[in-house]
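Hi support team,

I'm filing this because I wasn't sure whether my run with calcium ion finished correctly. The job status page said complete, but I'd like someone to confirm that the output block is well-formed before I use it downstream. Pasting the exact inputs I used:
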Amino acid sequence: MLSALALFAINANATEKQLLSPDGQITVTISDSNGCPSYSVKLGGETFLENSPLGLVLDLGDYTKGMSLTDSKENIKMEETYFLPTSKQNKIEVNSNGGIYTFAKDGKNIYSVEFYVSNRDVVFRYNIFAQNPTYCCVVKEEASGFKLPSNATTFLCPQATPMGGFARTTPSYETHYTVDDQVGKNGWGQGYTFPCLFKNAEKGWILISETGVNGRYFGGRLMGKENGLYTIGLPQEGEMNGLGSSTPGLSLPGSTPWRTITLGKTLAPIVETTVAFDYVKPLYEPSQKFTYGRGSWSWIIGMDGNTNYDIQKKYIDFSAEMKFESVLVDALWDTQIGRDKIKELADYGKTKNVALYLWYNSNGYWNDAPQSPRNIMDNSITRRKEMKWMQSVGIRGIKVDFFGSDKQQMMQLYEDILADANDYGLLVIFHGCTLPRGWERMYPNFVACEAVRASENLAFGQNECDNEAFCATIHPFVRNTVGSMDWGGSTLNKHYNYDNIHGNTRKTSDVFALAIAVMFQSPVQHFAMAPNNLTDAPAWAIDFMKNVPTTWDEVKFIDGYPGKYAVLARRHGDKWFVVGINAQKETIKLNITLPMFSANQTVKLYSDDAQLQGSVKDIKINKKQQVQITIPCNGGCVINN
Ligand code: CA
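And here is everything the job wrote out:
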């Protein structure tokens, strides 16, 4: 009885604050009930996140309990318009309401939690105060949690254990997703890779991720706990060969990255959100106006042995024929081609308006990958010398592979490579790597990260080809929603081999290949096409690929369900591309409304028959601006004007 009374006394003193989205539909409630900072989230009056923990354990003390909400700054308006041509949407308008809530312990203010709520996103971060004479700290634990309703289901991929996989290069965000699973699990014991998608029963969808991570913090993951609770996980100690630190250091006053929650009754807010970019700022100016676009690469069909002068020259000719802007010269070019011959190739490419990207190994002491060039990108002296050479030869960009850690030290390496590359006019693609967390806006020469089970796996295993459509219907709703995705696909080969007879068999259709060229977003796309496609692929498919854009003004969710099918639309200038794919055994028939086209407008429809034979025809949009589409299993459809 006494303890119940005591509890009542504490609760009676609890302070509760509410923050509403501009349209009033999303409500965030911040509380210090029982001395534990917490928050909850509702959409349209329905609970999307139950009372969820906030707080930090620092080397200075445990600031997850015994805390009180002492002060708040409310009615903050955030309104901003910015341009981000390398993301899913070029012109972005931010409109959100903010509040800053200060928490104290033993009479001393420790941190504030800064929240913003837009009509589709909730974000928060910690601003930790200096405690004279203490002006730095170590974050031992971040208690930030997300408590899903118990009947929610999950669409997650497990975080891999450290120093595993090919040449001890994990974690590299390449595990398989499980769809519509129950809450209460924890992957392979090490939580889940961001972003994490949840379905709130029949009420809607929730996407949880983070943004604004640079060399001043670690890349987080979600740890699955009991009763639907997920909390921020620190990097695993074994990453980076056990070196570096799992716990980040912060200069004080200092801020953590943003924790992001995107929610909606449908998947539209998840597909269309720009939350990864809205609350971060560019960290430097671009050194030049960069060129993006398409490219080809021999490695996906030809593997290591074909990174030689003659084949790369052939790919330059192929890119030129396809009107592509680049060729990616993959691993081992330093020994199999050499720097002098790379200059010759770059000069040859210039005569055909085709620029080169060069592949590098990131290591370092954190993987066993033998592919060279090695031990250049991990050190500022060797890196800058190499980049100076690349600039003198006219290389367009680099693709750096095999990182395998989210520790603060590795985040610093990503940032240092980007900053140096900008100085030498180079674009940067990361592969075998972490998720980009706002990097499109933070680093103007950043292109994309892999951080997905990418096209290379189709060359490695037939079972991956068998499951290609299943995986492809997940990415537009999860991985690709928060950042550019270097998937490296869209092949028109029937087999993953130059002779197009041997090698793993592609199960998806040619129209599927066109659809994912639009569906998977990255401002630079190195397609898996090969020179033989000029003669052995359908002319309508080649023509489409010659003209497909890689930068977009807008994206619209149309329909879909992760793991089953996906339909979305992207706009480039005044051209709309409505694309769909289907992974289900049954052919789907959808009557979709397309307000981007006018009644009676003639558009092109690329579609598959039941045998996955593709064709293109002109169709007329009807008076209701509706089109009926039919997509067989492993097939696709594309509608464009
Ligand atoms: Ca990979």
